[in-house]
User: Fold this.
Amino acid sequence: MKLLRIPAVLISIVVLGCSSTAPAAVGPTTQPTDAPSMPTATPPAFVVVPTPVPTSEPTPVPTSAVAQMPRGKLDPAIKVTVYNEGKVWPGTTLLNDNHDAEWPRIIEVNMLGEVVWEYVISRDLWEGEPLRSMDKDVELLANGNILLGLPKRGIFEIDRSGEVVWSHLDEKISHDVDRLPNGNTLYNFGGTDTVDDAQAKEVSPDGEVVWSWHAKDHFDREPYRGIDDLGWTHNNAVERLENGNTLLSPRNFGLLVEVDPSGSVVRTMGEGLLNHAHDPELLPNGNILVANHAKPHAAIEFNPDTGEVVWQFAPTYKKGKRRFIEPLRDADRLPNGNVLITGYGVIYEVTREGEIVWQLVLTDKKTALNGWQYLGFYKAQRVSANIK
Ligand SMILES: [Ca+2]
Ligand SMILES: [Ca+2]
Ligand SMILES: [Ca+2]
Assistant:
């Protein structure tokens, strides 16, 4: 997901990220997920591969953001356990919190972990009981509303009071919805897709499907034919690129695919590297940032032409805690080069050097782990502080 609010005035110049002098490897140490207090300096605990060429000029960090932070209420179900004020990209974080599967919610938290906005997803949107599935999507729109994708149900735009101001019902939806600059909405289907389904559709504000893409037109052949792992492709992301093409993530195929507006495959990427990839984004330098379910799970930046991994962050965990970290399902590059990474019960902000500078954890492990094991966090979006 992209950042929507850009700081009006950047107050100080603190250059972070994109270092060409990053260490080749750091650690190993254990990385606590429930440290007792914050801010906490957490030792690096991951493998870092340096980026050989700086990608782009990092955007300076507005350090006055903290004083202007919106305030909310602490919530016993979540806690910020790491907060390095001088190194984060400040703002709020918008996420779907599924830990209570009966009452899944969308929350926006500040850097202290205070909930500044909460929306418990109305059961009316499901016409009854909520679907016990984590693959909801949420994004903040330019008009301040929230776009919500509910699997097997549809897309809902709600205002901050929770009123539905627009919707598009479609049972064939999962994982990802994106509002496009032209006002249309691009959405994904792959939760339980069959060979006859469209894996991506674009719908206009008046509900007309104006574009769709069928994997069967290109991949109904060996070695893809007959795959069945929670669907044929289990496509889990759609992204409209600046060149008008669309990036898709057919998870079960172990690759990413870019298609042009006619639907033709322009290129495939990540073969041999990707394992259940989630939420890819194309970076300005042409590389791809994606959450990858290798062993261990990692957020990786790779060169799509060569397959070379140029950066990665693979969180470590104490014995028996893996289930609380993995799977990683989202990795967003922030303007200062940091990366926001969403795991099952923890969200990290890490620097280019691999230092964890912000960490949000689920404290309510009992509720989370009593449910289906994959009902934790799913994706998160950092909303930049609007510095005056
Ligand atoms: Ca989305
Ligand atoms: Ca997307
Ligand atoms: Ca993302």
The first strand starts at residue 78 and ends at 83.
